[in-house]
Amino acid sequence: MKFRTFAAFVGPSVFLMLLFIAAPLTSVFLQSFQLTQPVLERVEVETCTPGFVTQTCVTEIKTRPLLDEAGNIRTTTEWVGGLSYARVLQLGKVGEAIAAGAWGDILSIDFWKALRFTLTFTLITLPLVIGLGLAIALAVNNAAKAIRGQIIFVSLLPFIITPVIGALSIRWLFIGDGIMTAGLEWWLARDISMFAQGWTIELLMLFYRVWHVAPFAFVIFYAGLQTVNQDTLESAIIDGASRWERLRYVIVPHLMPLIVFVALIHLMDSYRVFEEIVGFSSQAHVISLQWLTYDFLQPDDAGNRAIGRASASAMLTMVGIVILLIPLLRRTWRDHRGA
Amino acid sequence: MSTPRALRQSFALRAGSAGFLALWCLIAAFPIFWIAVMSFKTPVDAFAANPLDVILGPETRARGHGLSLLDILVGVAVLWLTARLALRNLGGWVQRFSPPGLIALGWVLGAVVFGLGFVAVFLGLLPTVLGALNALAGPLGVPVIGLSTEHYVAVWAENAFYSNFLNSLLVTTGVVTVSLTVGTLAGYGLARSGSALAFWILIIALVFRALPHSVLVAGYLPVFINSAEILRPILGENAPTLYGQPLAVIAVLVSINQPFTIWMLRSFFQSIPAELDEAARVDGCTHFQAFRWVIMPVMWPGVITTGLFSFLLAYNDFLVTSLLLDAQNQTMVPAIAGYFNRETTTTDQVEAVAAAVSITAPLFLLVMVFQRQIVSGLTAGAVKG
Predict the structure, then answer these.
(1) What is the DSSP secondary structure assignment for residue A143, as one 8-state letter?
(2) What is the ipTM of this complex?
(3) A158 in a domain, yes or no?
(4) What is the pLDDT of residues A157-200, one digit of tens each?
């Protein structure tokens, strides 16, 4: 295919990606070194209240935003270097906490709190999703052919559901004296409130994410199981391999490329954990990196959005995903070059 | 066919595997089933601690909203008949009445007419007829299960959820159409070109796929809010403010989805033998003609599958739509956040449940109709390794 035809085919897509992915990335990078704030002026204001004989007058100096002709608040944008990063990272506080030996204090800073949750969330769900997906795939492969279609249908439901709604549906089972909480209380004979402390919310989030993604892993592994070489399996049996050994030495190596694929997709997606925070309304206890950026972008009470800090936290989030992905990207790279 | 003895499984293994599967199906379906049940009850029943109370809804029944055994029997029969008609006869009618060449349009129209007919019979005709029958039926006509649709009425009619629905419809239709048009072209180009450039585009797309969406939105937001001023030198006085525009959100979602779309479509195009377009080229087609008249007709399964995933992305999105759309253009998923953040009364909560079920119902239908395509789409990306 000539370059011109290739360009004509790929052009629109590349243009969209450049305009809406690459360009925003550069602008976020630049914004993270800028600070936009309203221009303030200090004015002397005299307020008088009627009093006996004479008025009581108070003069005070007030700060108020300058308005332009249209009545909008005037803003300035200036280059501030790493100020936004410093505000997000708060390294000073981190240093103090380390010096004082109080490691727990670091987690009271939003960014580090979010980082801690995002990483533990990603790393805990990964083996659970792969394990559960594989288990379901093996069990379905073992089931009668007639009911497989229905089982796949039911399994797809958690995968297809809107993430916020899925999180909400789990939350409604546990909220207040919802049936699951009531059941747990009856079983453990103690008072339980799932949304009063951070770790129970985190447990529910982990549960939700595994519930949501396991079907995806299952479908992919199930497709992989259909292509396992039966001859290899039979020769393994003749060699006296037990069921477990066959799984360990024949089936899992056969599925390995698929396991890597699922791990890659899952790392990308669970590092972006966000909908759980919204669905479980957990911002008071648990937040994630992506939620932190989202929160900076939301207008505050005065209608200002902290674009600078949002960009800084977005850049830091991106650094994290790049570090997580390097090993997997190198592998894809080698495979494609080899092929 | 008898299994070799060595492959035969012990009873314990088979029972364990079946039990595990049953447990998984229960866990997979239960939360969704449960919110569907809750949405039809009064708040007291919906959040009752006793599961039987939630299912039977004594409080709802006491308030005069209930189903009798007769209602349930007739309802199930009508549902069954509808499903049977849809599966057996609908296809034939569509084939017969749609003009040749417009079969896809015929299907869309047929589905809409069928759906409207079902709603008219099930929600319009049936309650009136059954109301009369219940009075005559004696013990069979006494309500046994509490069920009330008041929350759906509140959500859709009073809180104008239909406008959110229309916005969702606009955004998803736009995203699916544009994303498929742009994506099939790129996917075909990438699949048929072995150049280093194509390889680099794919690797960069993979990196873009990993970007958290909030990173990108942090880039759009200041530009979109001030776009009228930025674009004025180019477009003059009628430069639009992009913030709050569904069209801008469509462009954003299409681009965010592009990396995934081109990877998936590329793997579908690769499964079509290159000899096919070579033959067309020998017969004198240009590349584009070969793509349009020879490759596209055999690509429909792949296009439909990719379209489904674009649809899911646009329909399920919360982050982009909630940050880039203002209140009057809000789609359904961000709109529901308004309900559960309000949550002043338990009625609000049940209305949020009803809204959540309304959002889930189309997805449920989607899996029912397109299960095969979804599975093939999930595996298409993976199997090539």
Answers:
(1) S
(2) 0.81
(3) yes
(4) 888 888 888 888 888 888 776 777 777 777 887 777 777 777 88
CB count, 10 Å around CB of A182? 17
Can you tell me the distance from the alpha carbon of A272 to that of A118, in angstroms, rounded to the nearest whole number?
8
Contact B318 A176 (CB under 8 A): no
Distances in Å between the Cα of B193 and the Cα atoms of A4, A6, B29 are 12, 7, 44
Interchain pair B368, A155: CB under 8 A: no
**B180-B181-B184-B190 Cα dihedral, nearest 10 degrees:** -120
Whether residue B7 is predicted with pLDDT greater than 70 in this model: the reply is: no
CA distance between the termini of chain B: 33
> What does the alpha-carbon distance between residue A81 and residue A35 come to, in Å, rounded to a whole number?
9
* CB contact set of B339 (below 8 Å; sequence gap of 6+): B348, B349, B351, B352, B355
Assess whether pLDDT exceeds 80 at residue B229. Answer: no
Instruction: Evaluate whether A175 touches A279 at the Cβ level (below 8 Å).
Output: no
| Residue labelled with tokens 């239909």 | B162
pLDDT mean over B361-383: 75
Provide the domain limits for residue A273. 110-338
Q: How many domains does chain A have?
A: 1
Residues contacting B46, CB < 8 A, separation 6+: B38, B39, B54, B346, B349, B350, B353
Residue pair B145/B45 in contact (Cβ under 8 Å)? The answer is no
Across the interface, whether the CB atoms of B214 and A297 are under 8 A apart is answered yes
Contact between residue B257 and residue B208 where contact means Cβ atoms under 8 Å apart: no
User: In 3-state terms, what secondary structure has residue B106?
Assistant: helix
| Residue B255 backbone dihedrals phi, psi, to 5 degrees | -65, -40
Q: For residue B66, how many other CB atoms are within 10 A of its CB?
A: 20
Contacts of B197 in chain A (CB under 8 A): 6
Instruction: Give the CATH number for residue A119.
Output: 1.10.3720.10
**E strand or H helix that includes residue A58:** strand A56-65
- With a CB cutoff of 8 Å and minimum separation 6, the contacts of A45 are A59, A60, A61, A62
Q: Would residue A83 count as lying in a domain?
A: no
Burial grade of A315 (CB within 10 A; 0-12, 13-18, 19 or more):
buried
Q: Which of B14, B255, B340 sits opposite A20 (nearest CB)?
A: B255
Residues of A in contact with B33 (CB under 8 A): none
For chain B, what is the mean pLDDT? 78
Is residue A249, in this structure, part of any structural domain at all?
A: yes
Q: Which pair of tokens denotes residue A265? A: 């997709």
Q: Determine, yes or no, domain membership for A93.
A: no
Question: What pLDDT, on a 0 to 100 scale, did the predictor assign at position A128?
Answer: 92
Name residues whose C-beta falls within 8 Å of residue A58's C-beta, 6 or more positions apart in sequence.
A46, A47, A48
Q: How many cross-chain Cβ pairs, A to B, lie less than 8 Å apart?
A: 291
Chain A residues touching B365 at Cβ < 8 A: none
A275 to B67, B337, B366: CA distances (angstroms): 36, 11, 22
Which residue in A has a C-alpha nearest to residue B369's C-alpha? A153
Phi, psi of A175 (to 5 degrees): -65, 145
**Interchain contact, B51 vs A179, CB within 8 Å:** yes
Higher pLDDT, B177 or A40: B177
Chain B hits for A278, CB-CB cut-off 8 Å, are: 318, 337
